[in-house]
Design a protein that fits this description.
The complex is a heterodimer of chains A (about 475) and B (about 90).
Chain A (H helix, E strand, L loop, with lengths): L13 H9 L5 H19 L2 E4 L1 H16 L11 E5 L27 H8 L3 E6 L19 E2 L2 E5 L5 H8 L5 E6 L5 H7 L2 E4 L19 E6 L2 H11 L30 E4 L8 H14 L4 E2 L4 H27 L5 H11 L3 H21 L5 E5 L12 E4 L2 E4 H4 L5 H4 L5 E6 L6 E7 L4 H14 L10
Parallel strand pairs in A: 2-3, 2-6, 9-10, 9-11
Antiparallel strand pairs in A: 1-3, 4-5, 6-8, 7-8, 7-14, 11-15, 12-13, 14-15
Helix pairs in contact in A: 2-3, 5-6, 7-14, 9-10, 9-11
Chain B lengths: L5 E2 L2 H6 L3 H4 L5 H16 L8 H19 L1 E2 L13
Antiparallel strand pairs in B: 1-2
Classes of the chains: A alpha/beta (about 475), B mainly alpha (about 90).
């Protein structure tokens, strides 16, 4: 049902908007106009958008309304506005990837594959979203565009690097957004902004026509405020794409029709050891989710700390390799924090990087064995709730650590071997924090079913901010 | 025969040549600084001296993570994770 009391559709789900458009209760044009008005009004606070594709969005909305008037059956996301992290190509715009340097690139000639797929499902692109420079970031800060701001406290971080995606969805600007996740860049903003995020299995969703960061770790996926919206978007984006060399040649496996199956028969454990929460919030979030699911068994993910270290080295090295020419030519145009990490990465000995890749395969085999015993594993998404913008360090277990490198403490060992994860927000006060639901490769359905069951119980939910 | 993976034994680690010791009195700080300077030159990266400290800090961090991976014994036939499909 539409929550249209305020008439701005700010907190409606994608599914309810699409249903209302299909039934003729509201026009796609009306929804897009309201969305654009909301962006104009609220984005000066949130700083989540770097470009708004107004003309394109209105044209697309009119086409959908026309199709409905002609009696055509509308696709499942008809009239649903969405934004994309600005590393996705948008035809007619340079693909910034959060940088100053890319502003000099020619405009993209064609949309990223996932934009095309979402639009084929009726969704309407309304703009490009702020992000950490070249995705080497967990904070959501950006020295060129300013930081994206947390909708629950504008002085706090969104998390990154998909910070604008977290802010736009959590702040009620759009019901759906796309981001990328190399080491945690979907799951960290989901946690700090209190929304749902899906990092699918490595190779599940095509990355074609997105600006890369670490080829062997890069994933793309959706953000939403409801699990059904996450599933609808995910289903619309599945499928092989020869334009992404790592996109798996698998048939689509729709999840939305199976969301209501519940969790009967699923074996769910809590990650122990390395993943034990380091703050009261992280512990409380995992405990509440585990209790709701009756997950009373701990499981050890072997060598998780070493896995994080290996992910760290591969990221530094592959990221540096991608940027080497730009570092030679335009080092001064980078955010200094990103530049110095990339330069250091270029200096990492190759023998150690290869060793990290060898360890990666060993670790993968060990972790996959766990899924013979369990169907899903719970772990915190972030070590804490949103730090303040500009905060350099935080204390975890009484140890002072840099924020930038450690917000992904719990996400890195999981994406390292490409496992699918749904980040589910636990609406703690005053700030939310998420839990990772980790499943075996290609079992996004398991993670989404568990997330949906938790949402139905009211244990997880995207809290509405007082903006 | 496959060698079991796991943390290296003390004796295995002890057999490994220690570059720090071989370089006699070179302090680790100096060796990182030297590595930054030499790598920058060989990679064709023109560094502003003001960046040097931050790059050295980040390189030290990478090497600290690398050490954690390096000390984990893997069999000779361990395959790296990414596989190229022709």
């Amino acid at each position: 049902m539409l929550e249209t009391a305020a008439g701005d559709f700010a907190w409606d789900s994608a599914a309810s908007l699409a249903a209302a458009v299909a039934a003729g209760r509201v026009s796609a044009t009306h929804i897009v106009e309201a969305t654009l008005a909301r962006i104009r009004e609220r984005d000066p606070l949130l700083n989540s958008f770097t470009a708004v594709t107004e003309r394109r969005a209105l044209a697309r909305a009119r086409a959908i309304d026309e199709a409905r008037t002609k009696g055509k059956k509308l696709p499942p996301l008809a009239g649903v506005p969405f934004g994309v992290k600005n590393l996705f190509d948008i035809a007619g715009l340079p693909t910034l990837a959060g940088s100053k340097i890319n502003r000099d690139l020619p405009p993209a000639k064609r949309d990223a594959a996932l934009i095309e797929r979402l639009e084929a499902a009726g969704a309407i692109l309304v703009g490009a979203l702020n992000m950490g420079e070249y995705a080497y970031d967990f904070t959501g800060e950006n020295i060129h565009d300013g930081p994206s701001r947390n909708p629950h406290d504008l002085d706090r971080m969104t998390g990154g690097s998909s910070g604008g995606s977290g802010s736009a969805v959590g702040g009620g600007l759009v019901p759906l957004a796309l981001g990328s996740d190399t080491n945690g860049s979907i799951r960290v903003p989901s946690s700090l902004c209190g929304i749902f995020g899906l990092k699918p299995t490595y190779g599940r969703l095509t990355r074609a026509r997105t600006f890369p960061f670490v080829a062997s770790l890069d994933h793309v996926g959706p953000f939403a405020r409801r699990t059904r919206d996450l599933a609808l978007a995910y289903d619309a984006m599945q499928g092989f794409d020869a334009d992404d060399p790592v996109c798996a040649d698998r048939a689509t496996e729709p999840v939305a029709p199976h969301l209501d199956k519940g969790i009967d028969g699923l074996r769910i454990a809590v990650a122990g050891g390395y993943f034990k929460g380091k703050t009261a919030e992280a512990v409380a979030a995992v405990d509440s989710v585990a209790a709701a699911l009756g997950a009373n068994r701990d499981i050890d993910i072997p060598q998780a700390e070493r896995a994080r270290s290996a992910a760290f080295i591969i990221t530094a090295s592959e990221g540096a390799s991608l940027h080497l020419d730009r570092l030679r030519a335009r080092a001064r145009d980078y955010d200094p924090a990103v530049r110095d990490r990339l330069i250091a990465g270029a200096m990492a000995p190759a023998s150690l990087v290869v060793k990290a890749q060898k360890f990666r395969r060993w670790y993968r085999e060990e972790v996959l064995q766990l899924f013979a015993e369990v169907d899903a594993i719970l772990a915190p998404a972030t070590p804490c709730t949103a730090p303040l913008i500009g905060q350099q360090t935080f204390k975890l277990d009484d140890v002072e650590l840099p924020v930038r490198a450690n917000l992904g403490l719990y996400t890195q060992p999981i994406s390292f071997i490409g496992l699918p994860v749904v980040a589910v927000p636990v609406p703690l006060a005053p700030l939310p924090i998420a839990v990772q639901i980790i499943a075996a490769p290609w079992r996004e359905d398991v993670a989404l079913r568990i997330a949906h069951a938790l949402e139905a119980q009211g244990v997880v939910a995207a809290p509405r901010p007082a903006l | 025969m496959k060698r079991k993976a796991g943390r290296k034994t003390k004796s295995a680690r002890a057999r490994r040549p220690r570059p720090g010791r071989a370089a006699a009195k070179t302090r680790p700080e100096n060796s990182i600084d030297a590595l930054v300077a030499a790598s920058a030159q060989s990679l064709g990266l023109a560094l502003d001296p003001a960046w040097h400290g931050s790059i050295a800090f980040n390189l030290r961090l990478i090497l600290r993570h690398a050490a954690l991976v390096d000390e984990f014994a893997l069999p000779d036939d361990a395959e790296p994770a990414p596989v190229f499909h022709a």
